[in-house]
Amino acid sequence: MKWKDYTCLPPQFRDQRVFDGCGISGLLNVDGERISGQKVVDMLCILSERENGLGAGYAGYGIYPKYKDYYALHFLFDHQQCKDRVMEYLERGGYIIHSEAIPTKIPAHVDFPPITWRVFYEPRKMKSISPNEEVVQMVMEINSKFEGAFVMSSGKNMGVFKGNGWSHEIAEFYNLKEYKGYMWLAHSRFPTNTPGWWGGAHPFNLLGTSVVHNGEITSYGTNMRYLESFGYKCTLKTDTEVIAYLFDLLIRKHKIPLSIATTALAPPLFSEIEQMEHKYQYVLKNLRATYRSAMLNGPFSIVVGISDPIPTMIGLSDRKKLRPLVAGISEDENTIYLSSEEASFRRLMLDSINGFKFKEIWHPKSGTAVIARVGDGLLKKGLEKPFENVNLSIMGGATI
Question: I need a surface site. Which of 58, 190, 289, 313 has the fewest CB within 10 A?
Fold first, then answer.
């Protein structure tokens, strides 16, 4: 039974669509301390009314310290022959450092799981393109041309774990409590308008960039065509895929500072821009003109993890705040939290033996990013004005 086949789902789920909204959660330890994935599982599973049992997933950063210098490729395969073909393809383009099954156990109701596999990989370092670009092209090739194969994630020292099931079932299936990472992202519920298959669950990933998303991107067609002009292949037919690729394009390829990139994806309305200082008007109008096809329309809230060059977590909602996003910081200011509901934070407080408390919990402004980074802490609360604390005269050298 193919895991890409929607008809393989249990009959009671085949026509189920729940439009109420996804559950999203994320956390980042500023000091880089690696903690069990169980914490983000607890944050997500309390949001059970936001999911429908069709999909859930997690992304962990810092989980492979032994192989941190190699690309960690997480795969889903239909069958052994498909896996063999992909392994042969990888060997032609680089070096397989280590290859093994991703350990799993099957809980109740996780039906028809694919082969889950991981490979720690080093490309052959071509002179014409960077190793990152080699891996990107390889991922696009596998996902578009190898029937029955899918690359879940392709970053260094990180991995995505996802599939069909409830959030607690996927966490149990991959035994996430045994992994330790300094940043975790999580998502429950399956995409609203696409068939249920394992690879289509969130998070969506490319290299070190992972995205979990609540909402619907109505600009998907425009965003997809724009990305394809830069060589990306949007094979999953779901809107969240374009968000991951847009972050990769703007930050890795175009080397735009995070504050500028998030503003390009969710810029202020023209009516708001007209009321700003002239220098801000000039920059924002040019930014909108340059990246008009990258702008995200529709209701959304997202949590994004980026590992290169410095591990960073970003939270961003649409310009009208049609989807919720809540942020919090621990009392010791070492951990930043994001979620679609404050209930995730309250859940952590219930479990704490040592009386865990939050220093602050707040609701970021619409279209304004929360940015937290390992080593630097909370850089943006999502309450600032556009480009606040960013030197517009040297945008290319901005550090945020």
Answer: 289
Each residue of 268-326: pLDDT tens digit?
A: 989 999 999 898 899 999 999 999 999 999 999 999 999 989 999 999 999 988 999 99
Helix (H, G, I), strand (E, B) or coil at 261: helix
| Cα gap 90→92, rounded to integer Å | 5
Q: How far is it, in rounded angstroms, from Cα 305 to Cα 59?
A: 8
With a threshold of 0.85, does the pTM exceed it? yes
Secondary structure E strands in 293-349: 300-306, 312-317, 326-330, 335-339
Distance in angstroms (rounded) separating the CA atoms of residues 97 and 67: 9
How many whole angstroms separate alpha carbon 143 and alpha carbon 99?
Answer: 19
Q: Kind and range of the H or E element at 185?
A: strand 183-188
The Cα–Cα gap between 330 and 56 comes to 26
Query: In the 8-state DSSP scheme, what is residue 131?
Result: H
The partner residues of 236 in beta bridges, in order of sequence, read none
Q: Which domains does the chain have, with CATH numbers?
A: 6-381 (3.60.20.10)
Strands (E), 51-197: 56-61, 71-77, 94-101, 115-123, 149-153, 158-163, 180-181, 183-188
Is residue 94 a contact partner of residue 122, using CB atoms and an 8 Å limit? yes
69-114 pLDDT per residue, tens: 999 999 999 999 999 999 999 999 999 999 999 999 987 667 778 9
* Catalytic residue IDs: 22
> What does the pLDDT read at residue 11?
47
